[in-house]
Amino acid sequence: MPQVVLEMPKVDAGSGHITAFFQQPDGVIWIAFEGGRLHRIEKGRIEQAAVAPGLSSAFASCAAMDRDGQVWAAGSGTLARWSEGRFTPVATLPQGKVVMAASREGGLWIGAGRKLLRHTEAAGIVELSALAGDVSGARINCLHEDSSGHLWLGTTRSGLLEWNGTRLGPTPVTHDVWWLCEDRESSIWAATAGGGACRVRPRVLTLLDEPGSPGSLLARDLCLDAKGNLW
Fold first, then answer.
1. Chain segment 144-158, per-residue pLDDT in tens
2. Residue 147 CA, distance from chain mean position
3. pTM of the predicted model, to two decimals?
4. CA 113 to CA 96: how far, in whole Å?
5. Percentage of the chain surpassing pLDDT 70?
6. How does DSSP classify residue 43?
7. How far apart are CA 225 and CA 216, in angstroms?
8. d(CA 39, CA 42)
9. Which of 31, 45, 109, 189 is least buried, going by the fewest C-beta atoms within 10 A?
10. How many Cβ atoms from other residues are within 10 Å of residue 177's Cβ?
């Protein structure tokens, strides 16, 4: 097969590394930089994203697209939505490094410093939890909701954590985690500082042996509901 090489147009990165790089259904590509610059590439043309009056053009250190294709940006204590050709503030966030990920049920998961937040159109910003203890430098570095609906948090000082809907639980991955992704076997991969690439694999078979459970009875069928629960 002939080799195909795609040339990336030059973008003024400002400062810092890329924190988000994704494409909307209409083909527009978005790039966010740690230094706070947001760019969009449409039909080969690059432009820095416009913002509403009073909002700094370099306010956002991260960006994300929700399940409905809506683009969001966050940073400098502000959550903003892309609408009518510019970013407009919609909510105030705690100060600190901000990361975002789309929720399968709609809205956004947001990590702001040590805090885990959720944003929806109906409820606005809701604080769900925070990293335990008072460890200096602890913060949320990345978020990923897997195909079964579980939310994973990569952190500094607290390793890899899992949100079960009510609390944050630890995992065997204790190194600082900088990035998370999921493969086609539903394994979660964590890029760590000092621990290399770590894989969290789903359990293929677990004996159901809780007190009072029907583990010793005949099972004729199994199925998953929309949230990934096994019945």
1. 999 999 999 999 999
2. 13
3. 0.83
4. 5
5. 84
6. T
7. 23
8. 10
9. 45
10. 26
